[in-house]
Amino acid sequence: MLSVAEARSRIIDGLRPTGLEQVMLDAALGRVAARPLEARLSNPPADISAMDGYAVRAGDTVPGSVLAVVGTAPAGHPFTGRVDPGSCVRLFTGSLLPDGADTVLIQENATRDGDRVTVNEAVAVGRHIRRMGQDFLVGDTVVPAGRKLGARDIGVSAAANRPWITCHRRPVIAVLATGDEIALPGEPIPPGGIANSNTPMLAAAIRAAGAEPLVLPPARDSIAAIAGSLDGLRCDMLVTIGGASVGDYDLVQAGLAERGFAIDFWKIAMRPGKPLMHGTVGGTPVLGLPGNPVSALVCAVLFLLPAIGRLSGDSAAQPEIETARLGAALPANDQRADHLRASISRDDAGDLLVVPFPRQDSGMLRRLALSEALVLRAPHAAAAAAGDRVDIIRLDRLGL
Ligand SMILES: Nc1nc2c(c(=O)[nH]1)N[C@H]1C(S)=C(S)[C@@H](COP(=O)(O)OP(=O)(O)OC[C@H]3O[C@@H](n4cnc5c(N)ncnc54)[C@H](O)[C@@H]3O)O[C@H]1N2
Ligand code: MOO
Questions:
Q1: Where do transmembrane segments lie in this chain (predicted)?
Q2: Which has the closest alpha carbon to 153: 321, 314, 322?
């Protein structure tokens, strides 16, 4: 059976980023920049004062000397004259430094009396001046290609006078739940039925990853129904849920086969999520997730989110792996990579401590919802003692 890493590479390697579109800054959060964004304005755009005080000539700042205030230059209202020897201009944080001045005397070190200012402290050339372009210059790259845009990227883009960013189109991810037992949450649940938790959960995970979920009506357990769900479907990836295992009613593969499914792999060495399936139908990549909700979500973290990252052009699409200390001993692992749902706290030294829940059933959604992390156990990992370091993926950090 394939390893988690091999399966992920095979899924990701088959994907190409979506096409490009222009996105306004107020809609850019979580989008991925497709091209380097170059500044159209330097920051700061000119030499400006970093403090409230007076624009002066350093040579004039002999303590006790008196300067004539020849003007006032609030931020946004530059002084058009010059600061000649023996004179100064009142300015504020963000004010343009007037011609002739080479430093700023802060008001705490000056005594104002009408149009006169007495210098109380000498100032070196260049004090409290933010130089033009000290942050970036016109033409500098302020956002690299492949970056998932956060609030700070939006801030620097605005400072660079760039109201639009070229981004990859949000990938459209179709979600197809399958199963006769699946009922809409909120509807009466028939005998033997179960509320469809996977669809809203995965749609939310897809949205959190910056893609657009396209929720299809759940398909009954029949080859015709599953095949029919594909008719007229346009998306960047199809995610099926359930019907992936070996039961008589696990018909997703057979349904897809009716429309020419080319399978890449089925079943991998992981828990939960063993029956994961991957292939293409009519050129559209298909990820078949197991129906157990915990399995579906863990597979989404390990495979779907990186796939969305690749489709979106995100250069850092792998789930981030951190380490933590185990709060409880674990037995040796079998041949499947395990992903234990766990809570996180801090020990007395401030170190991250993870405690896997004692019961790891892949239908237990409340446990999953309360988990802050997955503890990663490699195939055949030896027994681990409390205090040992283990790899984890933080679910709370993923916004899931
Ligand atoms: N004989 C074997 N049986 C099973 C094996 C195996 O290797 N041999 N694998 C087990 C593993 S591991 C998993 S995981 C599951 C995966 O099964 P399927 O992908 O075929 O999923 P279903 O049978 O359709 O559903 C499993 C479970 O999840 C519930 N479910 C399904 N869809 C939803 C949904 N949208 N919302 C909420 N709950 C859902 C479904 O009712 C079942 O209870 O197979 C094992 N079996
Ligand atoms: O691999 Mo299944 O996903 O254990 O529950």
A1: none
A2: 314
Same domain, 164 and 174: no
Q: What is the ipTM of this complex?
A: 0.97
Q: Is the CB of 197 under 6 A from ligand 1?
A: yes
Burial class (CB in 10 A: 0-12, 13-18, 19+), 371: buried
Are 223 and 154 in a shared domain? no
350: left (phi over 0), alpha (psi -120 to 50) or beta: left
> Is the shortest distance between the CB of 339 and ligand 2 below 6 Å?
no
Q: Tell me the pTM.
A: 0.91
Ligand 1 atom nearest to CA at 179: 24
CA distances (Å), origin 28, targets 167, 200, 234: 8, 24, 24
Cα–Cα distance, 83 to 70 (Å, whole number): 8
Beta strand 270-271 pairing with 284-289: unpaired
Range of the domain at 29: 21-38+138-168
Residues 180 and 287 both lie in one domain: yes
Residue 247 confidence class, pLDDT cut points 50, 70, 90? confident
The tens digit of pLDDT for each residue in 323-340 reads 999 999 999 999 999 999
For 272-311, what is each residue's pLDDT tens digit?
999 999 999 999 999 999 999 999 999 999 999 999 999 9
> Does a structural domain hold residue 110?
yes
